[in-house]
Every structure is written in C-alpha cells, then in structure tokens.
Amino acid sequence: MPSDLSRRQFLVAGLSAGLAVALLAGGGFAALAANNLPLESPSATALLKGDNDALLRMLLSGTDPNTRDTERQPLIVLAARNGLSAAVDILLSNRARVDDLDAFGNTALMWAADRGHTAIVQRLLSAGANPNLQNSQGTTALIRAAKEGNAEAAEALLEAGADITRTDYTGRGALTWAQDGRSRRVIRVLEAAGARD
Length: 197
Fold this sequence. Notes:
Blueprint: H1 4-14, H2 17-26, H3 29-35, H4 42-49, H5 52-60, H6 75-81, H7 85-93, H8 108-115, H9 118-126, H10 141-148, H11 151-159, H12 174-180, H13 184-192
C-alpha cells in the first residue's frame, strides 16, 4: 500500500499545480465545487480575469506562454478571441507562438478577425502571423472577417498580404461570404482589392 506522501505525489503529478493544491488543502472536489473554484490552469484563469500582472509573473516564473486551456486553446488564441490586447502583448513579448492552433485549426489571427478586434489583428500581423493559414474547414482570417462583416479587420489583412482568392472547403471565398452576410462595406473593401465572383 503506498504511503500518504506517495499518494500526494501521484496526485500532484497527475493534476495541474493549482488544482492539486486546491484538492489537497481544501478537502477534495466537493470543496472545489463549494468554493466555486475553476478547473482551469492558473495562467488561463489570470488571463480571463484580466489579471495581466499575475499572468506576467507566471510567465516570468517559467510558465510556458504556449499553455493551453481546458478546451485546448492556446493562451494567445484565448486572449485574441476575447479581445484582451494587453494579454496578447504580454504573451507575444514572452515568446508565445503567434500561429499556434486551437483544436479546430484556428489561430489567434482568425479569432481576432472574426470578432472584429482590429488592433489585435494588426498586432498579430506585426508579430509575423500568417494571414493565409486555413483552419480545419479551410477558412482563413480574411474569410472570417468577411463572414462577420468586419471591414477594418479585412483591410488590415489585405494590407498584410491576405490572399483574396483563397476559398474554404465548400468553395466559398471572402467575397461570397460578405455577399451572403450583406456586408456592403466589406464587399466594397474586397472588390477594391480585386475580388471577383
């Protein structure tokens, strides 16, 4: 029978540090639920709470900037998706991979374009994000910006060399998606850049 210490060592090895500490100190999963504690990594929790000081301290203390949340989203994707520009800057300055993919092949750039976070789109592009990567459906950041009617994001992507001729796996490109969404402003931006049906 393993000793109490070896059981604890096993538990700590099998769980994230934050969860293991909460379980050992707080009396198990019932205590976690009663205290409404998240089952998320400390770095993802700090990021989502907007605690940039805590996030930076963790990164400077050795936390991998390419850590993933419980849904397998890299922190850079999580920050871009939620419009957390300061967190994006912190992660990039601590060597986060700018083109890291979530479970569906989406990059931070795709999410920022989708959500209309143009300043983040520009920051990611200046950090070297590839505007022509395709996710598991063949969608690019430009297609996502067009589909959601985000003209400023589309302009930034085009200026950075986004390929206007790329199509998703259904054969639809940015212009078709913009037309389907009736986004006149995005249609004008794409047509001015040379997009044709």
